[in-house]
Amino acid sequence: MTKKLPYYCILLLLLFQHSFAQQPKKPTASEIYNQIEKLNFLGSALYIAAHPDDENTRLISFLANNTKARTGYLSLTRGDGGQNLIGTELRELLGVIRTQELIEARKTDGGEQFFSRANDFGYSKVPTETLEIWDKEKVMSDMAWIIRNFQPDIIINRFDHRSPGTTHGHHTSSAMLSQELFTLANDPNFEPSQLQFVKPWQPKRLFFNVSWWFFGGRDKFEKADKSKYINLRTGVYFPSLGKSNQEIAALSRSKHQSQGFGSTGVRGEDMEYLELIKGDGITDQQNLFEGIDTSWKRVKGGAPIGETIDFILKCFDFKNPSASVFDLTKVYRQIEQLDDSHWKKIKLEEVKNIIANCAGLYLEAVAEEQSVTPGSNLKVKWEAINRSPVEMKLLALQLIPQNETLEQSYPLKNNLFESETITVKVPKDLPYTSPYWLNEKGTTGMYTVNDQQKIGYPDIIRNLKVTFSILVEGVQIPFTREIIYKYNDPVKGEVYRPLDVVPKVTTEILNKVQLFKDKKKQSVAIKVKAGKDDCSGTIQLELPTGWAVTPAYMPFQLHKKGSEKTVTFEVTPPNYATEATAKAVATIEGERFDHQQIIIDYPHIALQQVLLPAEAKFTRADVETKGKNIAYIMGAGDQVPQSLQQMGYTVTLLKPEKITSSQLEKFD
């Protein structure tokens, strides 16, 4: 039987999106115990800086794993202006990589990740320049939105707002805006349109995380008077994790592979220094939350929940975590009955995860293909297994975003595998999978995101999910999983991939920059790739008036999904100097397709599909050249050699370590 899922459930699921595109983690009993401790702490800290890799992973890890606080990192940019030591991707594609590296870092150190719409446009000397290019008002709006959503009790700045011109303008700007938003986020007159979704919020304290590099070196910092700073001892060891805080921080830091930030963990005493910028002072330097009620008593009607969790912690059986499930379902029911919307949503998700972990409940929905087109049918195999004596029953599968429920009746007995293959109808209007912040053209300083509720969300939004409605010890609990794809690799074993929604066909102009140094025609190659079986239509190259393209269009036919075909057009430029944007457009039964598919695949992050306009830059310019032979040393993502070749040069690529004077003599 099929029935509709209530609309409010769709909104709730959008709030708690988790990526399962990589192999799901299976926590140990000690890790589960830590999760229960965190369930009993109702406090949050937000760390703010400008770029990926600006964050202090030692402090984030300490707050998340020692204090047990909900800890977030707000990076104002996605690091688009950085270098790339692992590949050729630059600008927005590098931003996609660094976004994923930050997400992986937070999975490691226990934090959560957020971004504003600001673009890392490159180095800026002063914050005035930064804020002009960024659009200060929009960045402030984004920061207010994230603060109001996250509701941090404390905010920690990586940089000093009082030192413009002494460091990267992005760095100082992040601190300047943070200290301004400390009170402004609580002003109902600031960005009032946000208040239909969130409430004004006033953090209790704002800190500046002091570091030795603000003093010009470690030696100077050692000699400096640090009596005015809070001296927070962060060099702790976690026996339940088998790692020191610094070791966890190093693992997190090492996720920034594109920036070459691999780190070695250390052990022993360590100290972080913080300066109180705003808010109430503290007397206990080891408790940044001093005077803030972080117990369940901060929530109306929450005191009994804390008592139940205390009992669970006291009686927790490390050899049999499932013994705690019955009491955890009691906690779930107690939280459900709360009126408070903020902590209720957060803690419901936490306790559901803990219940599944304690019971060894494994839920998965696997597509038979890695990609699917809107309007098509997709076979999905779901799996459910309860690896505990806890009484469970699968009641229904809810398909998202189809808003349908498939009623089931499967008792989930101890260690007995249940599975079935179902056919999922993919909605015709389902958006393609791609970073949402790249869907519209932005400016030099800002990405364009018009949907308020997407702002701040770190990852690609994946819409195809399954919610398993399971009766656990008499309590009905929904567990949502993304539909993913996986396969077995002979070398790597089980490999997980995200499920991507793709166009029926994608196009790509193979040469992204084409120079016409005279009025002679040139060949332009376009690649067409099928997103489904049996694709046929026409392909054309669109250019402004003055440019001539022959033929006007070309037919294509692709029988197999993933197959490709390259077609060639002849382009004659105008007689005058000009620039133009060329677009490769495929048409199938009147439907227009003009996206290029880019796949980013590195082992340390989830596979990423990026869909960008299938465009290229054509330049008509009278160019006078001298010489013929050029030696060239490649940089990251470098496409200059192709342009030099178009100008008529013979280009030889050299490696710096192998250059000799005799080699250079033969070049012009």
Outline the fold blueprint.
Layout: E1 2-4, H1 7-15, H2 29-39, E2 44-49, H3 57-67, E3 70-75, H4 91-109, E4 112-115, H5 127-134, H6 136-150, E5 154-157, H7 169-184, E6 205-210, H8 218-223, E7 230-233, E8 237-238, E9 243-244, H9 245-253, E10 271-279, H10 303-315, H11 325-336, H12 342-359, E11 362-367, E12 371-372, E13 377-385, E14 392-400, E15 404-411, E16 418-425, E17 465-472, E18 475-489, E19 493-498, E20 500-501, E21 505-509, E22 513-516, E23 522-530, E24 535-542, E25 548-550, E26 554-558, E27 564-572, E28 578-588, E29 591-593, E30 595-600, E31 608-613, E32 615-620, E33 629-632, H13 640-646, E34 650-653, H14 661-664
Parallel strand pairs: 2-3, 2-5, 3-4, 5-6, 11-18, 12-20, 22-32, 33-34
Antiparallel strand pairs: 1-15, 6-10, 7-10, 8-9, 11-13, 13-16, 14-15, 14-17, 17-18, 18-19, 21-23, 23-27, 24-26, 24-28, 25-27, 28-29, 28-32, 30-31
Helix pairs in contact: 2-12, 3-9, 4-9, 5-7, 6-7, 10-11, 11-12
